């Protein structure tokens, strides 16, 4: 990077930082007035909308006075007339020019050479960088940033700039506290200066004369180039002090005087009429001959005579800025080259070819544009404020602006620009990238008039129709038609109030697609939302909600997108987190109840059935069995069935009763109820209902219908008797972490099927229990029920799918290893019931939100489960214990609430007696599990715990692998 580049880069950063700081202190304006000039009231209204938008989004200082002044009465009065109009406005509002710092940006041109900016004005054309607040920059924003430092480097007065040149400089190089005027210039080689205006300096360092588009030789001969061959280029930026402003204002301080100077006949030029008299070598005779903005008229000559007498006594100091640069937003061809091929020249400014677009590719540039993944964009093309849908094809080196394409083909080297008209209709203007609208040429065809004035573009009811009709007109050679419109008239009749809403609509579309793509990639959605500094618009929220409501809950890809859309929306409104979990539940339920039906032929085949099952201990892979993770990735769990005190503590009893009723009982709580109303039996989703599990079991096994209104009397008649279903968890405290609730559900299914004389496979058994879980809306995983239903140590897994299919494979462990594990495995009760926490919602929410810690841990714990199995099958209990420790650390990453002071103290108190430790279930209380060091007994651990915790309930429970 060159010294010049480094200097300009740092200057650019300094200006941006200073401006950002200024926005934090809005009562300290650097400019008292910022005034834009416009060609007519419609353009002025558009500018005011842009300024209001920036005020509402805190992008410009609020205490500065902003104004947009169109040429009076819609007549073109020239840049000089517009300047006098500014002076009148400031004087009317401030009373004088003393203590006022005024920034004026002349921006009232037609932009004939870049017609797509005719309507919005070149001043609000895009600049390819993102502002600190995340918005796309424009020339206006860059002016506000770069010129913010100039106000502090001058006395009261006015800085006048041209709205189509971006200056890159360091304001610290400006120092003007004197009288008269000062011109800001930059040093460039004469080879560049020959295409621009150049200042010639007199012996006192003031502007001696103006040279316009002279050859290198002429510049040298006229003394405009220095020893290094550089010249002082006119940047269009000039400072007038307050004394000069007062002198100029006295020429127009009455309505009559103002009308004489500011009119269409005189049409004063700021640069020709106001600056020429300030050059020390200028003469009145030559002044009369200076080329005006309009025509030579007697009125112009009279005004020049008076201007000369007022301005010529003042000098214009030349302020040279170096290193410095300027970027001229000139022709359409130059614009395309700037946004594509030349972008590397300005990377140090933070410029990039892709701003606010869903497709960031090197072959083409896009600014605030949605581009379909199926669209083909030619190399070197530039898109701005567009929606390019479906299989649209755009040729090479095109400029496409403000249009919607939907499958059309655009030829290479074409400009396509859409404009809404004041009558609500639409025009799409099409011409060659190299065409000059001031000339009578279009795509190489000679026109009978300048392209700017040729009525060749169809006026249509919609943007889509306008694109189609304009392409048809192109194929026909663009005949001039009475019902068509010209570039000029379509600009003059443009609905400028529609420009900003259209840009915001496109921006919202891009943002919507970015969010959906991030969702589909399962990125960190919380971070994504945080990066959207101003949040997302109501339109984007509405589109996201419509998309979520459109998506199916039974197709995995759609299900995954749907729950994450709700997650994104929940970042702005918490109620959508309920929608997220409701979708998860309904998606699982839809899969679980698929094929669920009431079996009217089922008969009670026995008088009574009792089923006892063990509890389970979880070793590896816990949480990977929980929806939606298991649905999207599959789950992998290693667990074991365990008996307590040699008993299976989960018990379910089913028996016949003589009455035509269904009796449900919970033996451990002492609750029992007789049901004769089918609707009360079918209501199984209330988590506080002591019989929710019983009801879900009856539904899942087809004993009662899920929703059909069949009477209890008819059901019991079909069964051959009434039915009694009782559940019990024997001598295990609630919140144990041993999977008792889910295993109880498994025992219910097993007992009911046995009572009905139905033989089912293990897979069908697991499927029915899963169905139960979802009918009850518990939302948990599948490892608990399988842990109790399947004996021994096993690896349980599933494949990604909405409807989970469980595979259970027993581990091949030698008798020696099993015996050692039985001796070294120990259960410790923490003495505290595991408190109900919103744990499932927290962990699942973090996974759905793509929080890396949660996603990564869920993957790692599955790996750990597989390694645990390997170590057990190899007979390496020590290796298994070490992996148990690793899993414990992963569990704490996933859920910090799985441990607490009491649990930490229990583990710490026996640290020298154990090789491995882990919680049971979700933790936070209940049981803990440890692997003892070789030679350490359960009695050793019991003794240690009683020494530390006395009679607080912390103790070893006798257990054995089932």
Automatic annotation (TrEMBL):
Keyword ATP-binding (UniProt): yes
Native source organism of the sequence: Fusicatenibacter saccharivorans
Top-rank taxon, per record: Bacteria
One protein family per Pfam: Fucose_pyrophosphorylase
Keywords: ATP-binding, Kinase, Nucleotide-binding, Transferase
Protein name as it appears in the record: Bifunctional fucokinase/L-fucose-1-P-guanylyltransferase
Residue ranges occupied by any GHMP kinase N-terminal domain in the UniProt entry: 729-786
Domain GDP-fucose pyrophosphorylase: 97-441
């Amino acid at each position: 990077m060159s010294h010049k580049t480094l200097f300009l880069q740092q200057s650019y950063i300094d200006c941006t930082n200073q401006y950002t700081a200024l926005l934090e202190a809005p009562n300290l304006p650097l400019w008292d007035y910022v005034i834009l000039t416009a060609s007519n009231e419609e353009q002025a209204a558009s500018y005011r909308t842009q300024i209001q938008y920036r005020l509402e989004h805190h992008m410009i200082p609020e205490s500065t006075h902003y104004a947009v002044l169109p040429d009076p009465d819609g007549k073109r009065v020239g840049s000089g007339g517009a300047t006098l109009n500014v002076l009148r406005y400031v004087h009317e509002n401030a009373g004088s020019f003393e203590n006022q710092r005024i920034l004026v940006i002349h921006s009232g041109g037609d932009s004939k050479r870049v017609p797509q900016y005719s309507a919005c004005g070149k001043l609000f054309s895009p600049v390819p960088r993102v502002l600190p607040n995340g918005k796309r920059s424009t020339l206006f924003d860059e002016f506000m940033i770069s010129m913010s430092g100039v106000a502090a480097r001058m006395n009261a007065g006015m800085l006048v700039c041209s709205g189509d040149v971006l200056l890159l400089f360091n304001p610290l190089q400006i120092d003007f506290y004197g009288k008269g005027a000062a011109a800001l210039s930059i040093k460039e080689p004469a080879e560049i200066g020959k295409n621009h205006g150049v200042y010639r300096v007199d012996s006192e360092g003031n502007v001696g004369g103006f040279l316009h588009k002279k050859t290198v030789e002429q510049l040298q001969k006229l003394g405009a180039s220095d020893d290094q061959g550089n010249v002082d280029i006119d940047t269009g930026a000039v400072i007038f002090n307050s004394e000069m402003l007062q002198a100029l204002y006295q020429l127009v301080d009455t309505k009559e005087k103002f009308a004489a100077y500011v009119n269409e006949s005189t049409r004063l030029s700021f640069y020709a009429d106001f600056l020429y008299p300030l050059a020390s070598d200028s003469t009145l005779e030559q002044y009369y001959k200076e080329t005006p903005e309009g025509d030579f008229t007697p009125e112009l000559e009279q005004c020049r005579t008076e201007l000369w007498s007022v301005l010529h006594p003042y000098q214009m100091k030349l302020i040279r800025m170096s290193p410095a640069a300027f970027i001229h937003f000139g022709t359409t061809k130059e614009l395309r080259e700037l946004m594509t091929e030349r972008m590397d020249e300005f990377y140090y400014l933070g410029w990039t070819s892709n701003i606010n677009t869903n497709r960031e590719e090197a072959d083409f540039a896009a600014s605030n544009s949605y581009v379909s993944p199926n669209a083909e964009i030619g190399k070197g093309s530039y898109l701005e404020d567009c929606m390019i849908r479906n299989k649209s094809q755009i040729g090479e080196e095109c400029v496409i602006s403000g249009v919607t394409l939907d499958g059309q083909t655009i030829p290479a080297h074409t400009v396509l620009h859409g404009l809404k008209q004041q009558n609500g209709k639409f025009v799409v203007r099409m011409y060659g990238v190299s065409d000059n609208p001031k000339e009578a040429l279009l795509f190489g065809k000679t026109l009978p008039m300048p392209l700017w004035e040729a009525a060749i573009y169809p006026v249509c009811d919609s943007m889509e129709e306008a694109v189609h009709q304009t392409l048809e007109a192109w194929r026909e050679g663009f005949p001039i038609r009475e019902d068509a419109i010209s570039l000029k008239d379509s600009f003059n009749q443009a609905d400028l109030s529609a420009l900003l809403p259209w840009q915001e609509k496109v921006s919202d579309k891009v943002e919507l697609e970015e969010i959906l793509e991030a969702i589909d990639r399962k990125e960190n959605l919380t971070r994504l939302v945080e990066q959207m500094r101003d949040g997302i618009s109501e339109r984007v929220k509405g589109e996201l909600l419509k998309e979520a409501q459109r998506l199916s809950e039974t197709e995995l890809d759609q299900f995954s997108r749907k729950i994450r859309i709700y997650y994104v929306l929940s970042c702005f409104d918490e109620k959508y987190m309920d929608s997220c979990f409701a979708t998860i539940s309904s998606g699982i339920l839809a899969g679980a109840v698929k094929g669920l039906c009431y079996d009217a032929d089922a008969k009670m085949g026995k008088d009574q059935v009792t089923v006892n099952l063990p509890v389970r201990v979880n070793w590896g892979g816990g949480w990977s069995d929980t929806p939606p993770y298991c649905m999207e990735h599959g789950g992998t769990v290693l667990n074991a069935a365990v008996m307590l005190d040699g008993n299976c503590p989960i018990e379910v009893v089913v028996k016949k009763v003589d009455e035509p009723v269904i009796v449900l009982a919970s033996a451990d709580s002492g609750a029992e109820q007789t049901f004769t109303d089918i609707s009360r039996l079918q209501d199984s989703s209330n988590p506080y209902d002591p019989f929710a599990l019983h009801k879900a079991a009856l539904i899942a096994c087809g004993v009662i219908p899920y929703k059909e209104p069949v009477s209890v009397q008819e059901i019991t008649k079909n069964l051959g008797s009434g039915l009694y279903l009782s559940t019990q968890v024997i001598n295990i405290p609630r919140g144990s972490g041993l999977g008792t609730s889910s295993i109880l559900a498994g025992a219910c299914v097993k007992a009911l099927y046995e009572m009905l004389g139905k033989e089912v496979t293990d897979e069908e058994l697991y499927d029915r229990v899963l169905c139960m879980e979802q009918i009850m809306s518990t939302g948990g995983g599948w490892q608990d029920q399988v842990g109790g239903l399947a004996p021994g140590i096993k690896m349980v897994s599933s494949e990604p799918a909405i409807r989970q299919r469980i595979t259970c494979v027993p581990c091949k462990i030698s008798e020696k290893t099993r015996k050692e594990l039985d001796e070294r495995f120990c259960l410790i009760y923490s003495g505290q019931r595991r408190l109900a926490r919103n744990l499932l919602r927290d962990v699942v929410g973090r996974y759905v939100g793509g929080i890396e810690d949660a996603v990564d841990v869920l993957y790692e714990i599955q790996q750990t489960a597989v390694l645990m199995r390997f170590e057990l099958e190899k007979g390496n209990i020590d290796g298994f214990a070490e992996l148990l420790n690793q899993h414990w650390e992963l569990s704490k990453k996933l859920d910090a609430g799985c441990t607490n002071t009491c649990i930490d103290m229990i583990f710490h108190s026996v640290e020298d007696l154990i090789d491995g430790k882990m919680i049971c279930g979700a933790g936070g209380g209940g049981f803990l599990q440890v692997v003892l060091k070789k030679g350490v007994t359960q009695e050793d651990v019991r003794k240690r715990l009683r020494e530390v915790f006395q009679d607080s309930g912390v103790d070893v429970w006798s257990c054995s692998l089932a």
